[in-house]
Design the sequence.
C-alpha cells in the first residue's frame, strides 16, 4: 500500500494523478495528503471523494471540510507534507515554488514523483545532491524524461538523447503571426491539455528549453548531445542513440497518465491501458525545429549548466507569461524579456539555498523592469 501526498491536486497533472489513483485502486494506494493553490471549489470535491487526513491550500479560508486537518499558506502545505508521513509525493505544482516544496519533501518521503520541472532547472546540482544524500528516488513525470528514463533501464549511457516537441499552437504560423499571436490562439494546444503556463511555454518552446536543462541534469548529459525534434502527434516522447548506432525510442499515446502511473508503480507496470492498436496507421514522422521561430529555445541551450542563469531564465519567463496572459505584452516580447533579464544577471554556479531564491527574486524584479 503506497501512502501518497499530492502537491497541486487541482492542476492538470494533479487531476490526472487522481485518475491514475482511481485505476490503481484503494488496496494499492492511499492519499494521505492533498494540497492546492486557490481552486477551493474543485479541491472540496476532491477531498469529499478521496478523504485525505491532511489537506492544505494557499487560500487562507479554513472552512474546507470537517473531515480533514486543514492548513493554509506555504507553511501549511509544508506541514501537510511533514505530518501526513507519505511514502511517495507527487510534485505537481507549477512554477519555481515547486523547488521549495521539493526540497522540503526530501526529508519526508522515499520517492519524489517529479512533474515540476522547475525543481531541476532552478535547483540544479544543489537539489540533486540533496536528494542523493537523503536517498530519495527521483522519478521523472515529464513525459519526455520518463521516456528517456525508461529507454535507459538496464542499458549503458547513450551517445545522444532525443526529446520531442509538439511545436505548440503556433507551429504552422509565420514569424509575423507568431509575434502577434493572441492569448486565445496560444492556449489552443494541438495535442496536450495542460496548465496555462506550460501551454504558453510550448508555443515559445521555453518548455523544451526547460526540458533540455532538466534532461541535462537528470541524465548527466551535455546539452549539445540532447537533440530536439517536432513530432506533431507526440507519439514519440523521447529516445536515445548508443555507441553502436542502435537507437531506442519510447512510443505511446500522448497521455500524461502513462508517465504519472509509471512514476507511482516503477519498477512495475500495473495500470492497464489500451495503448496504440493499429500500428500500420502510426505516423512516426520527426521534423527539424526551425530555431529562428523559437529564440528562447536557443537561449536555453546557451545558459544550460550556468545555474544562476537557469533560475533567471525560468523566473523571467514566469513573469513574462503572466504579462502576456494579462494582455500587457505581445507574445513575441516574451523572449525579449527573458533575454534582457539574463543580460543583467551574473553567471554563477555552486549556489546555496539563499543564493537560489535571491537570484530568483532579482530576476523577477528585472523582468518587470525590462524596457520593451
Ligand atoms: N500539464 C502537463 O501535461 C504537464 C506535462 C509535463 C510537465 N508538467 C509540469 O508539471 C507542473 C504542473 O503543471 P500543470 O500543467 O499541472 O499546472 P497547473 O494546471 O497550472 O496546476 C498547478 C497546480 O499547482 C497549484 N499551485 C499553483 N501555485 C501554487 C502555490 N504557490 N502553492 C501551492 N500550490 C500552487 C495549483 O493550485 P490551484 O489551481 O488550486 O490554484 C494547481 O493545483 C509544471 O511544472 C509543468 O511544467 C505538466
Sequence:
Amino acid at each position: 500500500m503506497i501512502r501518497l501526498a499530492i502537491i497541486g491536486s487541482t492542476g492538470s497533472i494533479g487531476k490526472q494523478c487522481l485518475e491514475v489513483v482511481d485505476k490503481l485502486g484503494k488496496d494499492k494506494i492511499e492519499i494521505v495528503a492533498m494540497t492546492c493553490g486557490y481552486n477551493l471549489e474543485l479541491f472540496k470535491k476532491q477531498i469529499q471523494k478521496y478523504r485525505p487526513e491532511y489537506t492544505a491550500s494557499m487560500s487562507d479560508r479554513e472552512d474546507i471540510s470537517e473531515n480533514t486537518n486543514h492548513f493554509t499558506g506555504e507553511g501549511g502545505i509544508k506541514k501537510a507534507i511533514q505530518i501526513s508521513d507519505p511514502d511517495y509525493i507527487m510534485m505537481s505544482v507549477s512554477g519555481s515554488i515547486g523547488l521549495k516544496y521539493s526540497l522540503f519533501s526530501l526529508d519526508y518521503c522515499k520517492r519524489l514523483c517529479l512533474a515540476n520541472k522547475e525543481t531541476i532547472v532552478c535547483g540544479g546540482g544543489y537539489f540533486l545532491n540533496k536528494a542523493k544524500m537523503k536517498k530519495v528516488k527521483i522519478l521523472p513525470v515529464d513525459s519526455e524524461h520518463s521516456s528517456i528514463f525508461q529507454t535507459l533501464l538496464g542499458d549503458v549511457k547513450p551517445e545522444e538523447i532525443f526529446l520531442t516537441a509538439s511545436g505548440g499552437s503556433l507551429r504552422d504560423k509565420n514569424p509575423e503571426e507568431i509575434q502577434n499571436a493572441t492569448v486565445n490562439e496560444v492556449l489552443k494546444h494541438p495535442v496536450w491539455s495542460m496548465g496555462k503556463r506550460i501551454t504558453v511555454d510550448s508555443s515559445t518552446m521555453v518548455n523544451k528549453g526547460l526540458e533540455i536543462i532538466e534532461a541535462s541534469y537528470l541524465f548527466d548529459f551535455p546539452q549539445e548531445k540532447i537533440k530536439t525534434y517536432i513530432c506533431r502527434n507526440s507519439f514519440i516522447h523521447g529516445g536515445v542513440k548508443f555507441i553502436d548506432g542502435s537507437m531506442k525510442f519510447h512510443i505511446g499515446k500522448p497521455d500524461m497518465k502513462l508517465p504519472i502511473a509509471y512514476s507511482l508503480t516503477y519498477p512495475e507496470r500495473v495500470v492497464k491501458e489500451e495503448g496504440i492498436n493499429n500500428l500500420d496507421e502510426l505516423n512516426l514522422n520527426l521534423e527539424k525545429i526551425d530555431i529562428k521561430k523559437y529564440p528562447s529555445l536557443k537561449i536555453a541551450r546557451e545558459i544550460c549548466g550556468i545555474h544562476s542563469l537557469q533560475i533567471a531564465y525560468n523566473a523571467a519567463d514566469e513573469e513574462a507569461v503572466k504579462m502576456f496572459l494579462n494582455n500587457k505584452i505581445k507574445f513575441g516580447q516574451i523572449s525579449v524579456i527573458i533575454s534582457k533579464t539574463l543580460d543583467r544577471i551574473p553567471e554563477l554556479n555552486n549556489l546555496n539555498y539563499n543564493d537560489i531564491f535571491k537570484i530568483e527574486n532579482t530576476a523577477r524584479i528585472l523582468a518587470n523592469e525590462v524596457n520593451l
